[in-house]
Amino acid sequence: MTASRSLPSRAYLVDVGPRDGLQNEKGRVPADVKVALIEMLADAGLPSIEATSFVSPKWVPQMGDAAEVMARVRRRPGVRYAALVPNMKGFEGALAARVDEVVVFAAASEAFSQRNINCSIAESIERFRPVVRAARDAGMRVRGAISTALGCPYQGEVKPEAVRDVAQRLHDIGVQHAGVADTIGTGTPTATKRAMEAALAVYPAGEVSGHFHDTYGMALANVYACLEVGVATFDASVAGLGGCPYAKGATGNVATEDVVYLLHGLGVGTGVDLAKLRAAGRFISRALGRATNSRVAKALDAREGLAEEAAA
Ligand code: HMG
Ligand code: MG
Asked: What is the pLDDT of residues 77-89, one digit of tens each?
């Protein structure tokens, strides 16, 4: 099947499960499990994996093993391994760990910026400035995430102008990509298009992505809305893992399996092998002792009689 003419023919997926998915887990997830998950995702054909965060372990204890995880992952050529970095200390960790891409994370709402990274939006940009310079000098790629682009748990509504403003500030300091994030999953397709268009006023379509938490069940509709405005890069989380520790009640990212099923159904290529991706989802769900949040994985498991095995 060929893609509908109005949609991009190919999408680029970033699995953020090992980072966004696991950062909120209360129980300690062993580094072994994280390493195995990352390797399974690479094996499934994910071109990019957000593997960990070099953040303060006082703030996010689950990511305290970032250096160990990165040191142990067997790197697959052609796969981009990314890590979140909030400041120079984090950058030094990421550099030593030879990550391919650092992700600086700002917010479109002041209230969320304070809760998540303990500073204002303007201060966060100043903190990122030397990080971006050092990363670019070291030949690393730099992506920016714009949290609360479609709503804030503390402040409520967030206007597209605020998204555009943060995108511009990130662009001005040399960030190469703008990830537009619906942290609390309240966005609907029209609002999503407006937020994407705000980022597209600053970045080309190939350097804008959507990051949708599926709290309100809107994520797949929002992925489709992105395709309609030419945005074809998406973050997603295997088995729909996750949530942000500073966005209470926000559930995981849209499941990568569900995004792959949608895209392949539309004739949009991803390079991802859905069967291998489901295996990665089964592995991590079993390790965490819970059922997958992927609707597609549940449906296919049931059809193939794997449901009981997956829950075991
Ligand atoms: P702070 O407390 O203001 O910073 O936190 P500080 O500079 O005063 O440092 C406090 C302590 O942390 C010090 O240790 C530092 O050395 C240490 P002490 O002297 O007390 O022993 N420290 C670090 N340790 C390791 N790595 C580092 C680091 N930095 C400081 N990089 C800070 C400010 C930004 C560090 C903190 O707020 C933080 O780490 N926040 C991270 C929050 C986070 O990871 N949130 C989740 C990820 S964002 C997200 O999920 C959203 C996203 O998915 C998109 C979306 O959905 O919206 C991306
Ligand atoms: Mg997130």
From this structure: 999 999 999 999 9
Tens-digit pLDDT profile for residues 40-73: 999 999 999 999 999 999 999 999 999 999 999 9
DSSP states along 24-85: T-SSPPPHHHHHHHHHHHHHTT-SEEEEEE---TTT-GGGTTHHHHHHHSPPPTT-EEEEE-
Asked if residues 222 and 258 have their Cβ atoms less than 8 Å apart, the reply is no
Six-digit token string for 184: 């609390």
Alpha carbons 308 and 224: distance in angstroms, whole number: 32
Q: Which CATH class is domain 12-311?
A: alpha beta
Structure tokens of 229? 């405005």
Residues 6 or more apart from 42 whose CB is under 8 A from it? Answer: 49, 76, 79
CA 33 to chain centroid, in Å, comes to 19
Residue 292 has pLDDT above 70, yes or no: yes
Q: Return the H-helix or E-strand segment holding 209.
A: strand 208-212
Residue ranges around ligand 1 (CB below 6 Å): 20, 23, 53-56, 58-60, 84, 86-87, 89-90, 105, 116-118, 145, 147, 181, 183, 211, 213, 244-246
**Which of these, 271, 299, 203, lies nearest to 42 by C-alpha position?**
271
pTM for the whole structure: 0.96
Give 273 Cα–ligand 2 centroid separation in angstroms.
24
CB 138 within 8 A of CB 174: no
Q: How far is the CA of 245 from the centre of ligand 1 (A)?
A: 12
Task: Specify whether 244 is catalytic.
Answer: yes
| Two tokens, residue 310 | 């997956």
What is the DSSP secondary-structure string of 221-257? Answer: HHHHHHHHTT--EEEEBGGG----TTSTT---BPBHH
DSSP 259-306: HHHHHHHTT-B----HHHHHHHHHHHHHHHTS----HHHHHHHHHTT-
Average confidence (pLDDT) over 249-253: 87
